[in-house]
Design brief:
It is globular, with a radius of gyration of 23 Å. The chain is of the alpha+beta class. Strands 1, 2, 3, 4, 5, 6, 7, 8 and 9 form a nine-stranded mixed beta sheet that branches.
Length: 273
Amino acid sequence: MRCRKREPRGKGRRRIHAVATLIVSLATWMCMCSLVCTSGDVRTARRTRPDRNPSASSQATIDWHALRRENPDTAAWLSVSGTSIDLPVTNAPGGDTSFYLDHGFDGTSSPLGCPFLDPSTDADGTYALVYGHRAGGDLVFSDLQRAYEQETFDGLGECLWSTPAGGTITLEKLCSARVSKNDSLVQTFAWSSREGYVLWLANVVRQSSARAERADALVACSKRIVGLVTCSSDRPGQPFRTVTFFSSDRPKDEKQALYDGGSERREGPETDS
């Protein structure tokens, strides 16, 4: 009977190490695939909206019927030049600000969530406040995480905001700040007069750490605001948010009064990532 030749100890250890490395690599690859797959609903929504001319003045190239067939909560389409943001925005169903924190545009569970409007604001109103995750890389609102830093803010371009009823408007970047998640100034949603609105917006700019060069002029002629909110920290559960404002001198509706009177605030959703 022949005896098996024993392998050198070092060679056996190298083989075990190689197998362990292969297992770890496969596990990492599977996790990455999972993350990519969860963003599939966003890519599907992007395919629903064909490429358009960034200077277009209407929403003719957005298939609102297709979007609303897929998701009746569809409220708007948002694009920000200088970033990867080119996404649908939803209404919070029944005012539930938690649903789209962990559900994608197609309604299925997704850690990326889907950008959604604060229930106290309206897509065609004077002030639209939108929440979106900081998910790493260039996903969702990640490009805005450090927009409160002037250098990052300066790299942002204009915002295109499209709705089924209001068409597409172009908004200029105004300012960005790092604030508490329950900041009362950001969560002021109505004003009793034009003067009250301008004073509020001037205070928003004043508390911001990043501002447009012509911020004062933009405030003076502002008729509509879109605010984009995301987490400012890489760690979940932190109490601070980055909020970036874009302004337009085009009113929500030439035939309607711009201000509804009163003021209100409510706590924002727990956008922890």
